What does this fold into?
Amino acid sequence: QVSDYTSPARRILILWRIMWFFYVIRCSDNSLYAGITTDLKRRVHEHNHTKRGAKYTRGRRPVYLVAHERFKSKEEAMLNERAFKKKTKPEKEAYCSDYDKYRGSSEKGG
It folds into this structure.
């Protein structure tokens, strides 16, 4: 956590170590939602239980995590999110299916 009292060198180290995630969640209506975050567990919880979840997912609860990838920068995660959102629905489903096969099972959140 970065605070006003953190030394400049420590701030750089903390910010450098932050990992960004591109994630895909499946909503109760079987639609997919993609986003980026630094904390997957917190973000899935927000989508399921708070007003901080995306407006899109609030009416489609419960949601669960179906795929995620880790990146060293926010920019990389955003590029991956943008590329995913340009895919067709069948391509998105294939991505999630391939991820599920690779990981062994989907990760339920909440």
User: Anything to note?
Assistant: The longest strand covers residues 64-71.
